[in-house]
């Protein structure tokens, strides 16, 4: 364990360098491990097991065995377990936040926000567990009665990303457990320690062995992924990550078996500012949407469209805030830091490529635009670019970094066309004081989620998900638990037989 971690964690037993299978912390069968680094200082935090196909099959078998009894527990009992887990997350919020900052790099304040957000899913689904109602349906035959009940789908494989290492786990696991499913989590190689800490808190909450299993891998990710998608014991796969990997997993889910699947994939979110908008509010919305987690969110604004009449004013205000108010660095060293490192140098290379491409094609840098090598290889300045055009890479690719590219538009019809000119359809943002225009634009955008006069749309109560190549299904909200349930129809006959 790194000295920094030792000195700052209140409960050092939450730092765990193993995987969690059938209620036990265990190494990989091979004994192999991989390093996990702090992206802020490129320091090795610790190691985790390099799990294989055999390790994954053991975890799946444990989940399948646990499912036989867990599926019969009452909804109220599952609700109480989730609530206990929620309470333990709240009690250990500071340690969880520190783990996120150390392995993900996001500033401590944002990490605290993520922990609160992550815990809210456990609270939400603890309340949804008893509300998986069925229906009674009038039958055509007068002697029959049709009823439906909802049943847990079975063992679920959950593949989660590094950018929200706590919230993306609880958003899936909370719904799965509320439904009566058991899970195998493949945690991200970049941020496995947050997942392990959550599993430990779940164990302390009394969640039975085998119900939650966590496997870790780096180099064996293809082998582990295929094991999860091909196993006949796994009945559902939920994945958050890139569109390319999502498509691969979807194909694999139909190669040997046919599994229920939900996918939360890439985005290319338009952020639209009409000339009648409250410009200060729009700037604040853009700052939140674009630069939260240093732009490493799937719903962050990727293309910022500003109407001609307010373009220059918006650009000036946004760039001034980025130049004057943002500070890049390690938030564990300085409380003045507002933005931490990107996850690794490959992320920095992509951001730098997008900025370089835009400038070469005529864009102007209003703020930032440079790497920060004196801080380390994973830092890039929050950046604002003006004079963007649709032939630039940033217009068609998800940057996943702290770069705000500003595009001009003239009319409502034009901006809707430009916004929809992508295969992605996750989120969009609209700023206007005209309710009719807001509604028309929201209806016209080909996305799964719209923020009207807000740059923050994430909420446990809100259905999260996209359309087109941004994925399938919804997470969170009352709809999220349905992803882990199947509907069984029962027809009762002979009801018109005389007594």
UniProtKB/TrEMBL annotation:
Transmembrane segments: none annotated. InterPro entries: Ald_DH/histidinol_DH, Ald_DH_C, Ald_DH_CS_CYS, Ald_DH_CS_GLU, Ald_DH_N, Aldehyde_DH_dom, Aldehyde_DH_Superfamily, Succ_semiAld_DH. Keywords: Oxidoreductase. It catalyses: succinate semialdehyde + NAD(+) + H2O = succinate + NADH + 2 H(+); succinate semialdehyde + NADP(+) + H2O = succinate + NADPH + 2 H(+). The active site is at residue 264. The keyword Oxidoreductase applies. Pathway: Amino-acid degradation; 4-aminobutanoate degradation. It is an enzyme of class 1 (oxidoreductase). SUPFAM superfamilies: ALDH-like. Its EC number is 1.2.1.16. One of its GO terms (cellular component) is cytoplasm. GO terms for molecular function: succinate-semialdehyde dehydrogenase (NAD+) activity; succinate-semialdehyde dehydrogenase (NADP+) activity. Residues 25-490 form the Aldehyde dehydrogenase domain. GO terms for biological process: gamma-aminobutyric acid catabolic process. Gene3D superfamilies: Aldehyde Dehydrogenase, Chain A, domain 1, Aldehyde Dehydrogenase, Chain A, domain 2. Belongs to the aldehyde dehydrogenase family. This is Succinate-semialdehyde dehydrogenase. It comes from Coniochaeta pulveracea. The gene is UGA2_1.
């Amino acid at each position: 364990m790194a000295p920094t971690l030792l000195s700052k964690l209140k409960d050092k037993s939450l730092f765990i360098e193993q995987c969690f299978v059938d209620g036990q912390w265990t190494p990989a069968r091979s004994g192999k491990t991989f390093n996990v680094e702090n992206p802020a200082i490129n320091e090795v935090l610790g190691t985790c097991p390099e799990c294989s196909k055999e390790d994954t099959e053991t975890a799946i078998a444990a989940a399948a065995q646990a499912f036989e009894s867990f599926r019969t527990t009452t909804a109220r009992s599952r609700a109480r377990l989730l609530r206990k887990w929620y309470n333990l997350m709240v009690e250990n919020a500071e340690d969880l936040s520190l783990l996120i900052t150390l392995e993900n790099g996001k500033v401590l304040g944002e990490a605290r926000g993520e922990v609160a957000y992550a815990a809210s899913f456990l609270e939400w689904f603890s309340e949804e567990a008893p509300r998986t109602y069925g229906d009674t349906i009038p039958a055509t035959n007068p002697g029959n009665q049709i009823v439906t009940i909802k049943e847990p789908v079975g063992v679920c494989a959950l593949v989660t990303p590094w950018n929200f290492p706590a919230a993306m786990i609880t958003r899936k696991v909370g719904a799965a457990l509320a439904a009566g499913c058991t899970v195998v989590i493949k945690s991200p190689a970049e941020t496995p320690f947050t997942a392990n800490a959550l599993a430990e808190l779940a164990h302390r909450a009394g969640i039975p062995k085998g119900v939650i299993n966590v496997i870790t891998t780096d180099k064996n990710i293809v082998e582990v992924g295929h094991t999860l998608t091909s196993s006949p014991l796994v009945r559902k796969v939920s994945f958050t990550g890139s569109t390319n990997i999502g498509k691969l997993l979807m194909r694999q889910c139909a190669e040997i078996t046919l599994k229920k699947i939900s996918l939360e994939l890439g985005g290319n979110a338009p952020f639209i500012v009409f000339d009648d908008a409250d410009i200060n509010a729009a700037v604040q919305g853009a700052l939140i949407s674009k630069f939260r987690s240093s732009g490493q969110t799937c719903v962050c604004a990727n293309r910022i469209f500003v109407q001609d009449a307010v373009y220059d004013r918006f650009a000036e205000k946004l760039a001034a805030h980025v130049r004057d108010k943002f500070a890049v660095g390690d938030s564990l060293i300085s409380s003045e830091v507002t933005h931490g490192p990107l996850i690794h140098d490959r992320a920095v290379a992509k951001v730098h490529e997008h900025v370089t491409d835009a400038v070469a094609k005529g864009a102007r840098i209003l703020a930032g635009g440079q790497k920060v090598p004196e801080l380390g290889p994973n830092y890039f300045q929050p950046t604002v670019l003006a004079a963007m055009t649709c032939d630039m890479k940033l217009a068609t690719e998800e940057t996943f970094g702290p770069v705000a590219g500003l595009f001009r538009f003239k009319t409502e019809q034009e901006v809707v066309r430009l916004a929809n000119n992508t295969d992605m359809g996750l989120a969009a943002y609209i700023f206007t004081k005209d309710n009719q225009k807001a509604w028309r634009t929201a209806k016209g955008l080909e996305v799964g989620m719209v923020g009207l006069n807000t740059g923050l749309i994430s909420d446990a109560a809100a259905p999260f998900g996209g359309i087109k190549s941004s994925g399938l299904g919804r997470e969170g909200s009352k709809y999220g638990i349905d992803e882990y349930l199947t509907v069984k129809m029962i027809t009762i006959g002979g009801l018109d037989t005389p007594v």
